[in-house]
Every structure is written in structure tokens, then in C-alpha cells.
From TrEMBL:
It comes from the Bacteria. PANTHER family: FAD DEPENDENT OXIDOREDUCTASE DOMAIN-CONTAINING PROTEIN, SARCOSINE DEHYDROGENASE-RELATED. One of its GO terms (cellular component) is cytoplasm. Residues 33-389 form the FAD dependent oxidoreductase domain. Pfam families: DAO. It comes from Amycolatopsis lurida NRRL 2430. This is Oxidoreductase.
């Protein structure tokens, strides 16, 4: 691939920052509920609270949609993130709830798009787990069996049956969900939030969260907010305050890239008839998806752990871009001459259990990490359930399934530099085996 003219961004390749960023908080305020963070999670929480008549204030450090909500791959998944085999081995009783949560989250976002009339290029074509070789195909069949056992749905087939490029052996298509432009989705939800009765302050970073005089007091450079209840919706940035539960999550940096527009006949030659986004079955996935602008967006393959807070605003480095471009050329040899037009990245939060988590610190501060790389739909759905909990006092069964009774979490394994290198090496070993097998098959098929 050509990577000489890549536009490196510290925001997103999907959309530009808004031209109408709202003023920051200037003075002191009192409210019933304060939401910190204006990603899909925080915005959906505040929107639901406002809709249900609560006096709600949302504080966002940059602008709503600044975080991973506008930067992700735009794939609405209806299957939990992480390795379902490991999850069902270690948390067999939690998995059915996670499966239900993931599927209902996808439905929630579809409804949000419809009811708010958000133009975000949504195509409900289901995400496909794609196998790059026979080992990954076996893994996909196992995952599909676990999914079925635990109440989920997925259709296993060859690449031809799933309508995905023949470079993949086959895979499993998820039953609900699809792909969209996440920048446009976040912007649409931001618009809905700004027109709601919620008070929204952008460029307002919360620097401290403390309890004082029976209230939770949020400090910002321009003033304070005193609230009866608070929702922490800061995703990967959550570790910034003393009040955040220890070991709630670790921040990981991942990247996305977009090709230049590709001629329709070259795209048609890929036999990607379903247009389903594909995620490979490596330990750390690669994902590839078509866009409404005639390009392919692809990403991840390598993750990097954030070490200190505040998390830096980063642009991808060239080496990472080179590696991911190399992977693209392997998966799509017919498009190996295409140029990469832009590259960006973002921070996600990974929990030590790989389960989505929501909970409460005492009875006034709610938090959730509904993510592990699949939060585009889960974060807003869980946010809206937290809003309902605040108003009704009772938990929906989907929230119950991920509820942490105490804010205490186990230590992390395999997320240090050595662990991440090992995982990466394992994935490249898989690629090596698949590469030699493909070459051997091609040689055997050649006429003698
Ligand atoms: C490269 C990439 C690809 C991904 N691909 C997918 C995908 O295809 N499908 C999928 O389901 N998920 C995907 N994800 C994950 C998904 O984007 C996230 O899980 C989801 O957007 C999380 O939403 P959120 O609202 O919790 O967090 P965010 O969108 O990160 O929002 C958090 C907000 O909090 C604000 N904030 C932080 N600190 C403060 C503070 N002190 N005061 C005030 N505000 C603060 C931030 O500015 C930010 O706007 C991907 C993520 C990345 C980075």
C-alpha cells in the first residue's frame, strides 16, 4: 500500500470537530444529576435523564463525541467483546447476560438512530467474525456453539455464503447490528442532547470529584457543580480521580486507517456482496469494512497500553501504519496498490475480566465500563439503563447481569508490554502458518 501521503489525525478520520463547541462552565451550579463525559455513554445517559424530567448537567472536557465514540470502526456488534471461550470458562454464569446485553445494545442504537432521525450511513448488515485460516474457522464454530448455548444468534458459513471477500475462509455473521459512520452518529446524538433540557458544558474538564455536605462536588477550572448523584462516563479516562475504583480498567490505544476512494469495479471484484464488516479471529483482531464514501476503513492488530494520566492526545506513528498497511495488502492482494489516505486512533478501556461492568460507589456515584472494544452500542445502552436506575430505583435485568456489587476488581494479566508482545507474536505465528498453507495450496493447484 502507498503510505507516503497519509494525513495523521489526533481526532478522527470520520468527521471534523464541531464548529459550534459550547462554552465552558463559568460559575457554580447545583443539580440533581451530573454526568461526566460526553461520549456515546454519557450523552445517552444525560439524554435519557432529561427525557425523564431530571435536572441534569453534562460536563465534557473537549466536545461531546471527542473520545472513542467518534473514532471507532463504526461496527455495531451484537456479540460481546473478548474471547467467548475464555469468558464462558471463567464466568459461565455471566455470559448469558453479556450475550443478551450485547444483542439488546445493538437494538438500542438502531432505535436511537431511527427515533432521533440521525443520518449516519447505517447499514444493518451484521458484523462477521472472519477466519483467515482453518484454525480460526474452528475457533469461529466453537464461538458460534457457545453463543447458541447462551441464548445468542450467529450464522456460520463459508465466505461465499456470508458474502465476504474470498480471502477469508468463512466465518460467522452476527444476527443484529451493522456498520455506520460513528462520527456522524455521535454528532447526531450531540445535536439531540443540546436540544434537550439537559445543560451541557463543553471544554469543561472535571479535575476532582469529592463528597461534601451530603453532595458530590465536581471541580472544574471555571466553577463547581454540586449534585445529588453523579455518573462517571469517562471510559478510558476514568482513572484520573482518587474516587474511581482501583483496577476498574486499563486504557489501551488502538488505531484506524482509511484508504483513498476505490473504483466501484475494483470493490465489486472483491465479492463483498453482504457488505458486512469483518473482524478476524486473531487474539488482537484486524477489522475491515466498506464505507458509504467508497473507501475501506480498517484497524487495530496492535494495542498499546496507556501508562499515565491524563492520557495523551496521540496520532498513530508511521511504524504502526506500515504494519497495518502490510496486513491490508495480505488480506486484499488485489488492492495492494491502493493508498492510505488517513490514520487516527483512540483510547478504549479494558477490564481485567473482559466483562462489561457497571456499579455504584456508595449510593450516589454510578460508573460503567461497557466496552472492551465493543462499546459503541453497549456504552449508550448501559448509560440509558443507569439513567433509569437513578429515576426508578430498580435495575433492568441487562444492568443486573453486569452489576458489580462492590467496586473491587481483580488484577490484570497479559496487558504489560511483555504480555502484549507475546500476544502479538502468537498472532503473527498464526499468520505464518496460514501463509505457508495458502502458498502450498496454490502450488498444488498450479498445472504441471
Ligand atoms: C480505534 C477504535 C475502534 C473501535 N471500534 C469499535 C467498533 O467498531 N465497535 C464498537 O462497538 N466499539 C468500538 N470501539 C469502542 C467504542 O468506541 C467505545 O467503547 C465507546 O465509544 C465508548 O463510549 P464512551 O462514551 O464510554 O467513551 P468516549 O467516547 O471515550 O467518551 C468519554 C468522554 O469523556 C470525556 N472526558 C474524559 N475525562 C474527562 C473529564 N475529566 N472531565 C470531563 N470529560 C472528560 C472525554 O473527552 C470523552 O469525550 C472502538 C474504539 C476505538 C478507540
Amino acid at each position: 500500500m502507498k503510505i507516503d501521503n497519509v494525513e495523521y489525525s489526533t481526532f478522527s478520520g470520520w468527521i471534523d470537530p464541531p464548529a459550534d463547541v459550547l462554552p465552558s462552565l463559568d460559575g457554580d451550579l447545583t443539580c440533581e444529576v451530573a454526568v461526566i463525559g460526553g461520549g456515546m455513554g454519557g450523552m445517552a445517559t444525560a439524554l435519557r435523564l432529561a427525557e425523564r424530567g431530571q435536572d441534569v448537567v453534562l460536563l465534557e472536557a473537549e466536545f461531546c463525541g471527542y473520545g472513542s465514540s467518534s473514532r471507532n470502526g463504526g461496527q455495531i456488534a451484537s456479540v460481546p467483546g473478548g474471547d467467548l471461550r475464555l469468558l464462558s470458562l471463567f464466568y459461565p454464569r455471566k455470559v448469558p447476560g453479556m450475550v443478551r446485553l450485547a444483542e439488546n445494545s445493538a437494538g438500542f442504537v438502531e432505535d436511537l438512530i431511527k427515533t432521533r432521525d440521525i443520518d449516519c450511513d447505517y447499514e444493518p448488515n451484521g458484523l462477521a467474525f472472519a477466519a483467515v485460516g482453518h484454525g480460526q474457522m474452528l475457533r469461529t464454530r466453537t464461538l458460534a456453539a457457545i453463543l447458541r448455548r447462551d441464548g445468542g444468534r450467529g450464522h456460520v458459513g463459508t465466505s461465499e455464503e456470508l458474502g465476504i471477500p474470498r480471502t477469508f475462509v468463512g466465518g460467522m455473521r452476527e444476527a443484529v447490528g451493522g456498520m455506520l459512520n460513528p462520527g456522524k452518529l455521535s454528532r447526531g446524538v450531540r445535536r439531540a442532547l443540546i436540544s434537550s433540557p439537559a445543560q451541557v458544558f463543553e471544554r469543561t474538564k472535571v479535575t476532582d470529584v469529592r463528597r461534601h455536605g451530603g453532595k458530590v462536588v465536581l471541580s472544574t477550572p471555571g466553577g463547581t457543580v454540586r449534585a445529588n448523584k453523579v455518573v462517571l462516563a469517562t471510559n478510558a479516562y476514568s482513572g484520573e480521580w482518587d474516587i474511581t475504583p482501583k483496577r476498574l480498567s486499563v486504557p489501551m490505544w488502538l488505531i484506524e486507517m482509511e484508504t483513498e476512494p476505490i473504483a466501484p469495479e475494483r470493490l465489486a471484484a472483491l465479492d463483498w456482496s453482504s457488505r458486512s464488516g469483518v473482524i478476524t479471529q486473531h487474539q488482537v483482531m484486524e477489522h475491515y469494512r466498506l464505507t458509504a464514501r467508497g473507501t475501506i476503513v480498517f484497524g487495530v492488530r496492535r494495542v498499546e497500553r496507556g501508562k499515565t494520566y491524563p492520557l495523551p492526545a496521540k496520532a498513530p506513528d508511521r511504524k504502526l501504519v506500515e504494519e497495518l498497511a502490510g496486513a491490508f495488502a495480505t488480506r486484499f492482494p488485489a488492492l495492494a496498490d491502493v493508498a492510505v489516505e488517513r490514520a487516527w486512533g483512540g483510547w478504549i478501556a479494558i477490564t481485567s475480566s473482559w466483562l462489561s461492568i457497571a456499579g455504584r460507589i456508595e449510593d450516589d456515584i454510578h460508573y460503567s465500563i461497557a466496552c472492551n472494544g465493543h462499546g459503541l452500542a453497549q456504552a449508550p445502552y448501559v448509560g440509558s439503563l443507569i439513567a433509569d436506575l437513578i429515576v426508578d430505583g430498580s435495575r433492568h435485568e441487562d444492568l443486573d447481569g453486569i452489576w458489580a456489587e462492590k467496586p473491587k476488581f481483580p488484577p490484570f494479566t497479559m496487558v504489560g508490554p511483555r504480555g502484549l508482545r507475546m500476544v502479538w507474536a502468537l498472532d503473527r505465528f498464526t499468520d505464518l502458518i496460514n501463509g505457508s498453507r495458502r502458498r502450498a495450496l496454490r502450488a498444488a493447484a498450479r498445472p504441471r
